[in-house]
Amino acid sequence: MAQIYISLGSNVDKEHYIRQALIALKAHLIEFEHSSVFESEAVGFAGNNFYNSVIGAQTQIPLPQLCQLLKQIERENGRTNNDKKFSPRTLDLDLLFYDDVVCDSPAQLPRDEITKNAFVLQPLAEIAPDFYHPTAKQTIAQLWDTYNNPKQKLWKVEFTNP
């Protein structure tokens, strides 16, 4: 069983697509835990605010197939292969950790944005404070405690899990 963490983001019909992602992920993963949902301004482009959260789960799905599954869920929820990196999106699912695997393919693990973006790090710290980041050599709680980017503001929103 692999311990995994996945970030969820949407800035198009946000509540609907975060809910759809949770339903789809719960169908494939076990020991499922969901952080609070946070709203934040778009980073890297002018656009609608995002909803962001993180799920933790366990899986027996091998890493390459898990990456394919995440892309499939995104496509089933209106994401296209032509979407630009910094653009509005119905659903963005990013694998943050797969146990303590460090690699660049089939996904960058651990995901670089963990330490750069509050909208990833804060919800991750909420559900996995003691998880050890294998390249930063700190726990997620330690990373969040020392995080300092006053430009990135986020706030919890009311959200009922499906």
UniProtKB/TrEMBL annotation:
Lineage: Bacteria, Pseudomonadati, Pseudomonadota, Gammaproteobacteria, Alteromonadales
Protein name per the record: 2-amino-4-hydroxy-6-hydroxymethyldihydropteridine diphosphokinase
Pathway: Cofactor biosynthesis; tetrahydrofolate biosynthesis; 2-amino-4-hydroxy-6-hydroxymethyl-7,8-dihydropteridine diphosphate from 7,8-dihydroneopterin triphosphate: step 4/4
Domain 7,8-dihydro-6-hydroxymethylpterin-pyrophosphokinase stretches: 5-129
PANTHER family in alphabetical order: 2-AMINO-4-HYDROXY-6-HYDROXYMETHYLDIHYDROPTERIDINE PYROPHOSPHOKINASE
Highest taxon listed in the record's lineage: Bacteria
Gene3D superfamilies: 7,8-Dihydro-6-hydroxymethylpterin-pyrophosphokinase HPPK
EC number(s) from the headed UniProt entry: 2.7.6.3
Record GO terms (molecular function): 2-amino-4-hydroxy-6-hydroxymethyldihydropteridine diphosphokinase activity
Designated gene of the protein: folK
Keywords: ATP-binding, Folate biosynthesis, Kinase, Nucleotide-binding, Transferase
Native organism: Pseudoalteromonas rhizosphaerae
